[in-house]
Amino acid sequence: MKWFKYIIIPGLIFLVIILTYFYYLLSPVASGAQEKDFVVGPGAAFKDIVQELRRENLIRSAGAFKLYSFFSGSAHRLKPGTYMFDDSLSVPKMLRLLVEGPPDLEILVTEGKTLKDIDSELVKKGLIEAGELLNFPIGELKNDYWFLEGVSTLEGFLFPDTYRIRSGSAPAVMVKKFLDNFEAKAVPALGTQGGSIGNTKWYETLIMASLIEKEIPLPEDRLLVSGVLRKRLSLRIPLQVDATIVYAKCSGSFDNCHELTKSDFKIQSDFNTYLKRGLPPAPIANPGLDAIRASRNPETSDFLYYLSDPETKKTVFAKTLVEHNVNRARYLPSTEPSTVKPNRFP
Fold this sequence. Notes:
Number of helices: 11
Strand order of the largest sheet: 1-2
Low-confidence stretches: 194-198, 336-346
Radius of gyration: 28 Å
Shape: elongated
Order of helices and strands: HEHHEHEHEHHHHHEEH
Structural class: mainly alpha
Largest sheet: 2 strands, antiparallel
Number of strands: 6
């Protein structure tokens, strides 16, 4: 029985010590329940996920996490998405959440957001890779959505609303969710129910709505501005909408775009409404219902010019260039010749 005394008992003691330590490595790193966002990107490698968990101090040991994951059959079942983890989660609980996948994420698209800025937001939430929304092959969906015929960008079709999107969804699933909502809410407002393919008038209404959305903050001013822009179109006068210059300057983004300078108004772009007559070739943002209705129902007036009061954001109208210059001196006295802020109509 000496072998039992000198081999089995020490072996059992050693095994208990190992298992106790392993159990410790699987235990929560703390009990303070400090919450952290944890993003698993689409296609993320298992080892990279584990390293990030350790780097964020959400687990005690990368090795213990890997070992438990393999023996539990969970290593290759982790789902992408954004999780809310806290430091009181044990490895088994954390793995269960990663296998189940995160709950549906709530995505808020506000009026005036651009395709590029929405793409960036979805990237931050771990829903897509950078550029997947920007470069989405919309030709694949033209048989399902008649209004995509002849359209080359999703700009303008991501209708402002709150969306619930399941993490791990394919980009096509998300795009269809956006387009279904556009068809249900924006299409009726554009007056295109059952619209004919090839009729671009509704698209021009959408483009104009995007200009109004970005250019005019107060709803009560939008009908008049819509009328002014329509009049300038009919007179073949350049629209000179500053928001289009911002769109061209910052490659489709308004977030963190610097103030416009005099040289920006010389940018060679189809979106430069100072150099190009008519509407830009596509929307410059995703307009809401109010801007769409204003675009579709322009109010007739004698005005041909406008500017935005930087203090009140209210639009100030003028009938003549002389009157407009008086308004500029009154409301924009500090504007230097070399610097023009967005939302101003020179």
